[in-house]
Each structure stands twice: as C-alpha cells, then as structure tokens.
C-alpha cells in the first residue's frame, strides 16, 4: 500500500513506515542467510532495547535448529544491522482459531418468560439484570 501522501502530513507515521520497511528488508536478508527449509519457518520480529535481534520460529523443531545455527550467523547478522548485539529465538505463539458464531436460538415465547421473571426478581438485582441482558442480546441477534 502507498501511504506516501499520508506520511508527508504526519511525521510520526513516516517514522513508522520507515521502521516497517527496515524490518521487512531485515527479514528478507535474514532469510537469505538461513537454509531454505528453515527460512520458511521463521521471521524477524524486532531488535529490542539491548540490541537483541528477536526471531520467531513456527515450532519447537524450527526453533531448536535455528538456535543451533544462530551463533555462527551472528557476525553476518551484525553486518546487516550494526545495532544487533545478539540473537534470541522464540517459538511463535499459536494463532487462536476464530470463535464459532453463536447458533443458540431462544424462541420469543421463552424470551418473554425471561422478561417476566426478571420483573419478579427485583430483590435479586444482579440476576434480574442478567436475564434482561440475555433477552436484549438475543433479540438484537435476531434483528
């Protein structure tokens, strides 16, 4: 995407775009240094405050293999970015699967009864409010 027109007006955005481009280039260059079958399973995350290049590996096997070869690659990595003082490899956190859509259907007659029950439970305000919320949410879903 081209954000040049926006970044001219917003210097902070310009800095973020430059940093993003730097890390994309660094990621590409780091992957060129790695064996092809390993490069596909890792990515550059950041260079932290101590100058540690942080890499994410897609799994334990890739992380273990990466940890074995990184010490030998450190001088070449430092040639790519002079701020790098060391390398840390972490296993990438798993992506959470999307939550399935709610499919519970409560008939209108049952919702009406919940509404009536909430009115009779004035002395249990928390429970009455929970019932009212349930009714409101299910009616909103139906719309």
Automatic annotation (TrEMBL):
Name of the featured protein: DciA family protein
Lineage: Bacteria, Pseudomonadati, Pseudomonadota, Betaproteobacteria, Neisseriales
Pfam families (UniProt xref): DciA
Species, as recorded: Conchiformibius kuhniae
InterPro entries: DciA-like
């Amino acid at each position: 995407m081209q954000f040049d027109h926006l970044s001219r007006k917003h210097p902070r955005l310009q800095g973020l775009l430059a940093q993003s481009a730097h890390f994309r280039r660094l990621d590409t260059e780091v992957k060129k240094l790695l064996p092809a079958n390993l490069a596909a399973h890792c990515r550059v995350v950041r260079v932290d405050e101590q100058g540690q290049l942080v890499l994410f590996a897609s799994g334990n096997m890739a992380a273990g293999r990466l940890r074995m070869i990184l010490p030998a690659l450190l001088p070449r990595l430092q040639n790519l970015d002079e701020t790098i003082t060391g390398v840390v490899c972490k296993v990438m956190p798993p992506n959470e699967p999307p939550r399935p859509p709610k499919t519970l259907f409560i008939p209108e007659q049952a919702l009406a009864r919940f509404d009536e029950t909430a009115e009779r439970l004035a002395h249990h305000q928390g429970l009455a409010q929970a019932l009212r919320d349930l009714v409101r949410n299910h009616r909103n879903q139906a719309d």
